[in-house]
Amino acid sequence: MRATAVLSVLATLALCMGLSEAAIINKSVKRTWDLTRHVARSQVDITFGDDEAAVKAYDVAIPLYLDERLALLTAKADKNVLEVVKGKRDTEKEVQLYTVQLKTPVAKGSEGSIKLFAHYSRVLVPYPAEITQAEDQLVMFTAQHLFVSPYATTQQTTRVKLASSRVEQYSELPPVALKGTTLTYGPYEAVEAYGSLAFAKSLVVHFKNHAPFMTMTTLVKEIEVSLWGRVSTEEVVDLAHTGAVLKGGFSRFDYSMVQAQSASFRQLTAVLPKDVLNVYYRDQIGNITTSRMRHTATRTELELNARFPLFGGWKTQYYLGYSVPTQTVLMRSGGTYKLEMDFSTCIDGAAVDDLTLKVILPEGARNIKVNVPFAVDVQGETTRQTYLDTALVGRPVVVLQKQNVVAQHNVPFTVTFEYPGRFIYREPLLLVGGFFAFFVVCMVLFRLDLSLAKGPKAKVH
Q1: Is there a contact between 33 and 163 (Cβ–Cβ < 8 Å)?
Q2: Residues near 62 by Cβ (< 8 Å), separated by ≥ 6?
Q3: CB–CB of 146/63 below 8 Å?
Q4: Helix, coil or strand: residue 287
Q5: What is the pLDDT at residue 14?
Q6: pTM score, whole prediction
Q7: Cβ–Cβ contacts within 10 Å for residue 129, how many?
Q8: I need a labelling partner for 102 at 20 to 30 A (CA). Which of 7, 66, 234, 281 fits?
Q9: pLDDT in tens, 4-34
Q10: Strand 130-131 and strand 245-246: pairing?
């Protein structure tokens, strides 16, 4: 037992001495995969140090096939959010590098710790791809067996949380244990940098997952800002079930008998602001028929129930709109206004393939600045003509586009703009002037004599 420990220490020292590119050593790596929903989540707790110099930044390597489905990567240290910068792509090792900027450098010979959070969409592949209404939905998940790191690692473990205890197959690389819905690998000792790409794609799990594979293939969200009382929001959604495709027909009777075991969903839960007003919804085919709204101290929840459930491969489209009082989301400081709204959809648990966000500002807004806490794919600006707008100016519209959006992207973003004080009276003056001109024209028309023949003159006695 003592000899084994000595060999382990010697192996670790050899790795440390042979590491030429970086002197940072991962003292401990604890990785957790959460596969309970259709969006896979990864959390990695890392303890690291450097005996040669202070550590100011930490590099993270994501395999390219996972990086293509990476929706969001964040890092924390002592509950402080750290900046993550995308680096170069290493085609030789087939990884994408990211750099985590540490707020406080880790001193030479000391230990630091960070937590990495990653979210991946469409990495749970239905297998088989088609099932009948009575069959269970099975999914396949594939990843590296160990955590891929550009640094040598002294010890690491991996835990996989599954959606059910029904596991058809899983890779068995000792030490491994399956207890209920948790699969545990490790601990593994003395793993070299990149570890032969950490046994490339050797972690395979095939299990049952009936979580709603709720995916919005397209989402167009419009926020219209008015300084006269309300800010209106409308979402136009193309919704699909991206799980195993339903094979055969649909039976309402069978669905009512085994609804709890069915791989489908029929309820959507929208999380709205607590001061929400004028909530409405509609769809093209009348599938969404019933709703229930309840208010809490912090938010309003709207439950939408469909007449027909959505199985794998089924799609639908609907509209959802609401308003909030202007003073709750728009702050003013002199002639500068700051709008703060949520970025993504209000539907809980939905992933979005392609999101387009439009913020329609009042006519006359200028010096527009947008602050989003993460990178977007496209940011632009256009104009739109609406009621009481002038033909030459129109309302400025901020357009943001982003692909592969998950629930963690639904955080507040801000739009700051300047609006001259005199412009706020433009619309009331246009209305007053319009009505005044209308009545003047009516007065003139009623008093105008357009007859061609003149009547006989009255005789004077």
Answers
A1: no
A2: 70, 73, 95, 96, 97, 98, 118, 148
A3: no
A4: coil
A5: 40
A6: 0.85
A7: 12
A8: 66
A9: 343 343 344 444 443 334 589 999 999 999 9
A10: parallel
Calculated CA dihedral for residues 427, 432, 438, 440, nearest 10 degrees: -140
Query: Residues 431-451, buried b or exposed e (16+ Cβ, 10 A)?
Result: eeeeeeeeeeeeeeeeeeeee
Locate 279 and state its tokens. 């909530």
Report the distance separating Cα 98 and Cα 116, nearest Å. 11
**pLDDT band, residue 252 (cuts 50/70/90):** confident
Token digits of residue 433: 């002037």
78 phi-psi bin (left φ>0, alpha ψ -120 to 50, beta other): left
Look at the domain 24-208 and name its fold: Immunoglobulin-like (2.60.40)
Tell me what the mean pLDDT of segment 248-268 comes to: 79
| Rg for the chain, CA atoms, rounded | 30
- Numbered ranges of CATH 2.60.40.1730 in the chain: 24-208, 214-423
CATH number of 214-423: 2.60.40.1730
Neighbours of 166 (CB within 10 A): 13
Structural contact between residues 55 and 70, judged by C-beta atoms closer than 8 angstroms? no
Residue 445's H or E segment, with its range, is helix 426-447
Of 113 and 289, the structure prediction assigns the larger pLDDT to: 113
Mean pLDDT of 436-455: 76
What is the residue type of 324?
Answer: V
- Residue 229 tokens read as 């009382």
Kindly report, residue by residue over 336-355, the tens digit of the pLDDT. 999 999 999 999 999 999 99
Residues 37, 213: Cα–Cα separation, whole Å? 8
Q: What residues contact 420, with CB distance under 8 A and at least 6 apart?
A: 335, 364
